[in-house]
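CO-FOLDING WORKSHEET

Operator: S.A.
Ligand of interest: magnesium ion
Run index: 317
Mode: holo prediction, single chain
Checklist:
[x] sequence pasted
[x] SMILES validated
[ ] output reviewed
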Amino acid sequence: MNGTPAIEAVGLTKMYGNFAAISDVNLTVKRGEFMGLLGPNGAGKSTTLKAITGLLMPTSGSVRIAGIDIKDHRHAMEHVGCVIETPEPYPDFTPAEILDYVGRIYGLDSREIAIRSRDVLETVRMWDWRNKKVGEFSKGMRQRIVLAQALLPNPDTIILDEPTSGLDPRGMIEIRRTLAELKHRDVSLLISTHILSEVSEICGSVSMIRDGHVIASGDVSTLIHRIGASNSVTLEIRTLKPLTPQVISDLEHCQGVTGSEKMGEYMIKLEFTGTSEEQALVNEVAFRSGLGVLALNEKGANLEDLYMELTKGDEIQ
Ligand SMILES: Nc1ncnc2c1ncn2[C@@H]1O[C@H](COP(=O)(O)OP(=O)(O)O)[C@@H](O)[C@H]1O
Ligand SMILES: [Mg+2]
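OUTPUT RECEIVED:
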């Protein structure tokens, strides 16, 4: 059924003695949706993903994958590729051997394994390394092999727990690029991360988790808009000729401008909280200044602002 969510977790709670690692976590990933599960270390991301993939039994709550209860584990996980808590591939094996092994577990025949292996190794850009031992690879390359393993059975749904953690910047970029490319395939993705920018880069929606509770969830752009509406934006104006005191004063006196910061001779940042009409007038003033406007940028609220807003008052004591 098309309306059936890829993943539906309802009221997930996991107790360790009196401590709730996660508490009443609700999460729905629609088909084709890319959702980020965002939260700091210890927030409950791995616990949530383990409960969703049936690696641990929640104290209460239920999970359905493509409409199938996770208690029917084999059936529910049939179309899921997942990597939870960074496993390491065997160092003495080559990617080709590892994928052959994984393919057999999934019951694929040799021909299917050969076709699928090539496809996933090309996707993660490791085809040229297929016959080299994994032990010689960098961490980023090993992580891409792990990702290839998850992709091998051609899953409808992919669940990844912090796939870029511990990687150098290049390794991170490679993994993110691969994940972004998955958008061209008809898959749903649930990815946990503690990196905000990773969510806005890869995901359309986000669930923010903190101390085991989901504190916000929804469409990334809707959430950003919601806080954007209550916050100021920054207007950045860059000019061809040096800014004059007169132009600066004119800009500062525009309706809606609540602050300004001169960034060298040719650029000024204005803090703006007015209406769209007022914002258009600020632009008019800039264009009529005779200084030549080279660039006019609006920097709105972003996920970072939202995260700060939501965790306000929670500063480290
Ligand atoms: N097996 C366990 N026993 C006791 N506490 C645990 C166990 N696993 C996780 N926790 C605790 O549950 C909380 C959430 O952990 P986890 O889901 O691993 O967080 P994250 O993946 O977001 O870093 C942490 O406070 C962690 O210490
Ligand atoms: Mg974790």
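REVIEW:
Residues 232-300 form a domain with the Alpha-Beta Plaits fold (CATH 3.30.70.260).
The mean pLDDT is 90.
[x] output reviewed
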